[in-house]
Specification:
Layout (H helix, E strand, L loop, with lengths): L1 H6 L5 H14 L5 H15 L3 H15 L4 H14 L2 H8 L1
Helix pairs in contact: 2-3, 2-4, 3-4, 3-5, 4-5
Length: about 90
């Protein structure tokens, strides 16, 4: 997911929206590489444009409400980066 978001500039937003449930289901996995991969994918999807950024921020808030330490870590990581001034300025430009 992260590589698709980063390299495929012609990919449509719908392709990424369809992948978000998969990221949500992986958010409960406590394995270190899995939680980092989910976070990386969500952050890269959220950096594509402002519409996807809003969608991913909502998904991250949902993930943050899950009863899982990994899910809370993913949510805080995604929310921190995608809400940053640098990312918002690039998306608004």
């Amino acid at each position: 997911m992260a590589c698709l978001a980063w390299y495929d500039k012609a990919a449509k937003d719908e392709q990424f929206v369809e992948l978000l449930p998969l990221a949500k289901s992986g958010a409960n996995d406590e394995r270190n590489y899995i939680k980092k991969a989910v976070s990386w994918a969500l952050r890269n999807i959220g950096k594509r444009n402002s519409q996807l950024n809003d969608v991913v921020l909502r998904v991250a808030e949902e993930i943050g409400g899950m009863d899982s330490r990994a899910a809370r870590w993913i949510a805080s990581d995604v929310l921190r980066e995608l809400s940053s001034q640098a990312v918002r300025a690039r998306l608004d430009a």
